[in-house]
Design goal:
This protein is α/β, with parallel strands linked by helices. Among the domains are: 88 residues, Gyrase A, domain 2; 169 residues, Isoleucyl-tRNA Synthetase, Domain 1, CATH 1.10.730.10. Helix content is 55%, strand content 10%. It contains 22 helices and 13 strands. Helix 18 runs antiparallel to helix 22, helix 20 runs antiparallel to helix 21 and helix 20 runs parallel beside helix 22. The longest helix has 25 residues. It is flat and about 85 Å long. It starts with 5 loop residues before the first helix and ends in an 8-residue tail after the last helix. The mean pLDDT is 92. The site of arginine has 9 residues, from helix 12 and strand 10. Arginine binds next to helix 12 and strand 10.
């Protein structure tokens, strides 16, 4: 079962020391981080600096007292040192502790990095959100890939997860599409073969017509109104659009290798709930009638303008559907957290949503989060399917596969199942490109950046993992591991062995111990790029380790076993980390 992380251990020491000093009321100041200079230790706490301000005592004096208190605790040899430096308290883990953790990784294997923090708690993650009758483009990648990663991270921390795509299947755009379908008469044969692209063409053509001839908009709106009112023909056509799109979305899900979704509750699903939501808001006296008959919630005093629920022509809004969505999820799933992974152009929308719900008595500002994403654009400007400035997801994946296959053919022409591996490498490049950017930053998509295979990239991590497996394969051929060793790994150093390790070996051990806390952190702040950075640093650390130190050529058998265990554990952590990113880890490439 998952063990205590080293960070928890240090936190625990600090809080015991503070309570020994009768300073428990300051426990909330505890925040330990790796120090800027790794020579100082593995973790550093600024507790003394904060306490000194509050208590008006010299920080060195408090730090000294805390250090003494910690030294009085039975540390079971887990710490090499705890010292004060410029008011900071620095902790250095002992070699024994680091070695124990190495054993833990080898024992826990795929479970290393898991925890039970989320046990008994439910989190709803909404992502993907593709729109019906439109082909997804590169801009849709972020929400899918980041959502999939967060879902995996939550699962690893023991949460019950609910994933929902919340597809865009309602709104005036369906009036436009219906009107186009009826008046422009699509080619049924093409429609049969390639429905989504054909429907999209119709939509684009009709939008252009409307731009030139504004009065057509009313005709399109009327088609949506008929749809809302249950007109049989419109419902039937709409259902056809939705069914074809769902098939297409599933195809993309598989192409992208993201986990299956629990729900595809589109916006239309909430149609039937809207009257009760309106009634509830009316009853709570939150609704104002505007000059032209529109219904809105007044959020002016919060600087959030007006949140419109029903337009003056009686049409319901995107906002209203989102209120219904929140209330439905709350009742149905009893979530602790409800997360929307959506780009930052909708920040205002979510602020309005959460604030209005608070006014209605729901804790939405606490239990719901808009995980905002920077927007992706092309060097020539915004992505727009309508204007034809777009790169489809399909093209991106095809091109990535081509490039990956070529590289593998150059570098490892004898590799078995080249096609399958190149697909794994291609997806790694695409996904990591998105995941490794801070999610809030705007990204300008270029082919060479998105499909890069060197430096801080998915393929580089895969390569590091495969290279370790290459060494392990060789060592197995050389040493004829017996069955027990093959199962348990190589003979281990016992923690009492006082082998003296090289710095580069210790650096790998120290990096390995951070993995569980990095994963936990992602489950709390929703920044997968920190997991990417961690895995990149781990890979660099292990790569410089075996540039400096012989593994297979080592003649001391104990040291050799230790090093084989060290790289086995590193490969395991890279694999576990890649799994959380939604990236596969081939053993050969
Ligand atoms: N389909 C929407 C769009 O394309 C995004 C949905 C975001 N989620 C939500 N619950 N409003 O803009």
């Amino acid at each position: 079962m998952p063990s205590e992380t080293s960070k928890n251990f240090i936190n625990h020491l600090l809080s015991s020391a503070l309570s020994g000093l009768k300073l428990t009321s300051y426990l909330d100041v505890l925040d330990i981080t790796p120090p800027s200079n790794p020579d100082f230790g593995d973790y550093s706490s600024n507790a003394a600096l904060i306490l000194s301000k509050k208590l008006k005592i010299n920080p060195k004096e408090i730090a000294g007292k805390i250090v003494d208190a910690i030294n009085n605790i039975d540390l079971e040899g887990k710490l090499e040192s705890v010292t004060e430096q410029g008011g900071f308290i620095n902790f250095k883990l002992s070699q024994k502790f680091l070695l124990n953790n190495l054993g833990t990784i080898i024992d826990q294997r795929d479970l290393y990095g898991c925890s039970v923090l989320g046990e008994g708690k439910t989190v709803v993650v909404e992502y993907f959100q593709n729109n019906v009758a439109k082909p997804p483009h590169v801009g849709h990648l972020r929400s899918s890939v980041i959502g999939d990663c967060l879902l995996r991270v939550f699962k690893s921390q023991g949460y019950k997860t609910i994933s929902d795509t919340h597809i865009g299947d309602w709104g005036v755009q369906f009036g436009i599409l219906l009107y186009a379908f009826k008046t422009m008469k699509p080619d049924m044969e093409v429609l049969e073969k390639d429905p989504i692209n054909e429907l999209n063409k119709l939509y684009v053509a009709m939008s252009a017509k409307i731009e030139a001839q504004a009065e057509l908009r009313d005709l399109a709106k009327a088609e949506f109104k008929k749809l809302e009112d249950g007109d049989e023909q419109n419902r039937k056509l709409w259902q056809l659009f939705v069914d074809e799109s769902l098939k297409d979305f599933e195809r993309y899900r598989i192409l992208l290798g993201v986990l299956p979704f629990d729900y595809n509750l589109g916006e239309s699903f909430y149609e039937k709930h809207m009257p009760e939501v309106l009634a509830e808001f009316q009853e709570k006296k939150l609704i104002t009638k505007g000059e032209t008959g529109e219904l809105y919630i007044d959020l002016e005093s919060f600087g959030l303008g007006r949140c419109i629920l029903v337009k003056s022509d009686g049409a319901t809004t995107y906002h209203l559907r989102d209120f219904a969505t929140y209330l439905y999820r709350r009742k149905q799933f009893n979530f602790l957290k409800n997360l929307y992974i959506v780009d930052n152009r909708q920040s205002h929308h979510f602020k309005q949503l959460f604030k209005s719900l608070e006014l209605a008595g729901y804790p939405a500002e606490k239990d719901s989060t808009h995980i905002d994403l920077g927007f992706m654009s092309l060097p020539e400007g915004a992505i727009s399917t309508r204007k034809g400035t777009t790169i489809s997801l399909e093209n991106l994946i095809t091109e990535a596969n081509k490039r990956a296959l070529k590289i593998i053919e150059d570098k490892n022409p004898d590799l078995e199942n080249k096609e399958a591996v190149s697909k794994q490498v291609a997806l790694a490049a695409i996904k990591y490109f998105d995941l490794s950017h801070n999610r809030k930053t705007e990204i300008i998509f270029t082919w060479d950046n998105a499909l890069s295979f060197e430096g801080n990239t998915g393929p580089y991590l895969q390569y590091t993992h495969a290279r370790i497996h290459g060494i392990l394969r060789k060592s197995r051929n050389n040493t004829e591991l017996n069955a027990e060793n093959a199962e348990r790994g190589f003979p281990r150093l016992s923690a009492s062995d006082s082998a003296s390790f090289r710095d580069t070996e210790l650096s790998v051990l120290r990096k390995l111990i951070q993995f569980p806390e990095v994963v936990t952190q992602v489950s709390q702040d929703y920044f997968p790029n920190n997991l990417c950075n961690y895995l990149f640093e781990l890979s660099q650390t292990v790569n410089s380790f075996y540039q400096e130190v012989p593994v297979l050529a080592e003649t001391d058998e104990t040291l050799k076993s230790f090093r084989l265990n060290l790289i086995t554990a590193t490969a395991q952590v890279i694999k576990n980390g890649l799994y959380l990113l939604g990236i596969e880890a081939p053993e050969e490439m």
